[in-house]
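Q: Hand in one record:
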Amino acid sequence: MTQDEIIEMARQAGFYISPFDSVLLPKLETFTKLVAAKEREKWSEVEAYLIAASEGSMSRNNSEALANELLTAVRERGQA
């Protein structure tokens, strides 16, 4: 994510940020990296479940339960 994108998202969230802010901008960049890392971690879990389901190492009931769980999680994230 670029610095301009971070600034724009912060503005959309109600922050006033100068591109030259030497205190807040580095903290926002660090926060953004932490959020992105957490998202990658969660999607890695989803990928592992999907691979297990596609390889047939899950029963049909477990696959359907997992699919419902993943759909619910994605919908909830979209509402945040």
